[in-house]
Write a structure and sequence with these properties.
single chain, 143 residues, mainly beta, conserved putative lor/sdh protein from methanococcus maripaludis s2 fold, six-stranded mixed beta sheet, three-stranded antiparallel beta sheet, 0% helix, 38% strand, elongated
């Protein structure tokens, strides 16, 4: 990629880029020659985020917060989001190893509300789902 066209398409919200191709008119058995203005599929390698964690967008609240289960209580944790896409937000700080992110949607969230963790042996991920039981104490299940 050499440069962008400097405009955002008002309809698609996409930016057109100019890509430099060595020998664009060279015909091969698998691809036709490239002509100016043709659409192509290009893989662009970007910067690697080191020590970032992918958090499901459904688990994000107020743009940069997640609900974490700590010591049997719900804790609202702020994250430093460095990138986001349709499915995930990528944070480089704000979470510790072993933190359990609550991915359930809750109607009412109160800081330090009690939660109970229920571990299912067949799963190994650290995301948690809050489920109400008969005692009205939310319960966490790993997914």
């Amino acid at each position: 990629m050499v440069r962008t066209t400097g405009q955002v398409d008002k309809t698609s919200r996409l930016i057109s880029v100019v890509v430099e191709v060595s020998e664009p008119f060279k015909d091969s058995s698998s691809t036709p020659p490239l002509l100016p203005g043709m659409f192509v599929e290009v893989a662009i390698e970007g910067n690697i985020l080191k020590n970032a964690i992918a958090v499901p967008r459904d688990a994000m609240h107020n743009n940069n917060e997640v609900w974490v289960a700590k010591d049997g209580q719900l804790d609202v944790q702020s994250l430093d989001i460095v990138r986001a896409d349709r499915d995930f937000a990528y944070a480089d700080s704000g979470l510790n190893d072993g933190d359990m992110i609550i991915v359930s949607s809750l109607d009412t969230v109160i800081e330090d509300m009690k939660v109970r963790i229920q571990t299912e042996s067949e799963t190994s991920t650290t995301f948690a789902e809050v489920v109400e039981d008969q005692t009205k104490t939310p319960e966490l299940r790993t997914k």
